[in-house]
Design a protein that fits this description.
This protein is of the alpha/beta class. 41% of the residues lie in helices and 18% in strands. It folds into two domains: 3-143 and 266-288, Rossmann fold, CATH 3.40.50; 147-263 and 297-325, 3-Layer(aba) Sandwich (Rossmann fold), CATH 3.40.50. The strands form two sheets. A seven-stranded mixed β-sheet has the order 7-6-8-9-10-11-12, with helices on both faces. Strands 2-1-3-4-5 form a five-stranded parallel β-sheet, sandwiched between helices.
């Protein structure tokens, strides 16, 4: 294969390239380890590439990206991380929350690692502290502490007569228990019962939503979580099928037809992580780069979905919205 054709193929592909092929390029290689799937990650990949470009790196021109996708199967992440370490990548980007970040950290203590969308990286043991990460790991925190509690409160404003809500978590995610406890405590203060539902497969998702009627849940909070992100369209469709009001962490669900979301920007997390990867390629050390945090949290509402569910969004909630999709 000619060099120009090889570079073009690398630049246009989001698949896993073998060691022999990558060895043909003298350009630095970024390992892109994701717990999500390529089919629903175009937006965040674009944001990551934009961050790289702002630091002077363009895929196919002066850098190569080797993609590895777990597609929601977190048990695959250690092997995928090991593949990227074997490629001797210059930087390992752990995309898709705690599962990929923890797998990346376990795979190497020498290759620089940048993570995205990780809540409380200090508690998870990824960094020594936010300001002084230490070691070979840094990245972008989603600062989602309190998101579950606020989501319960917002859902209660939209469905004031509800006496119970469901809270959907993925038990394979190491932060699931933290989120569930937080949501349950917040709901108790509002006099609302919370049923924690668990799903780590597509079948689990079907069963969780089918159980809502029997639980008499007036709404559902969907945890911000990589596997759920990879099944975003399915989850939104299930909420519509069972006519249940749902609140999500990320705007992408609302853009796909979900009712509302409250949280930080996922694309911003990837964009800023891309900038960090570029800075590390230029010689900076992860230990010297503080963990970044979001600057704001956004409330997004979908009026068309509210109408389909027979809901009238209160004026107070509309006034709080950062974006309204009509």
């Amino acid at each position: 294969m000619k060099r120009r054709e090889f570079i073009k193929a690398l630049a246009s592909s989001a698949t896993a390239w073998p060691l022999a092929a990558l060895a043909q390029s003298a350009m630095p290689v970024i390992g892109f380890l994701s717990s999500r799937s390529p089919s629903e990650s175009a937006g965040v990949i674009g944001a990551f590439r934009q961050g790289l470009q702002e630091t002077g790196f363009v895929e196919g021109q002066n850098v190569v990206i080797a993609f590895r996708w777990a597609e929601g199967a977190y048990e695959r992440l250690p092997d995928l991380a090991a593949e990227l370490v074997a490629l001797r990548v210059a930087v390992l980007f752990a995309a898709g929350g705690p599962p990929s970040a923890l797998a990346a950290k376990a795979s190497t203590s020498t290759i620089p690692i940048v993570f995205s969308a990780v809540n409380d990286p200090e508690r998870l043991g990824l960094v020594a502290s936010y300001n002084r990460p230490g070691g070979n790991v840094t990245g972008m925190s989603m600062f989602t502490a309190g998101i579950g509690a606020k989501s319960i409160e917002l859902l209660k404003q939209l469905v004031p007569a509800a006496a119970a809500f469901a809270y959907l978590v993925n038990p394979s995610n190491p932060t699931a228990e933290i989120y569930a406890k937080e949501a349950t405590t917040a709901a108790g203060a509002l006099g609302i019962q919370v049923h924690v539902l668990k799903a780590s497969t597509e079948r689990d998702l079907d069963e969780a939503f089918a159980a809502l009627a029997g639980l008499r849940a007036g709404g559902i909070v969907v945890m911000g979580e990589p596997f759920f992100d990879s099944k975003r369209d399915k989850i939104v469709a299930l909420a519509a099928q069972y006519t249940v009001p749902a609140i999500y962490t990320f705007r992408e669900y609302v853009a796909a037809g979900g009712l509302m979301s409250y949280g930080a920007s996922l694309t911003d997390s990837y964009h800023r992580a891309g900038i960090y990867v570029g800075r590390i390629l230029k010689g900076e050390k992860p230990a010297d780069l503080p963990v970044m945090q979001p600057t704001k949290l956004d409330l997004v509402l979908n009026l068309k979905t509210a109408k389909a569910l027979g809901l009238t969004i209160p004026a107070k909630l509309l006034a709080l919205a950062d974006e309204v999709i009509e």
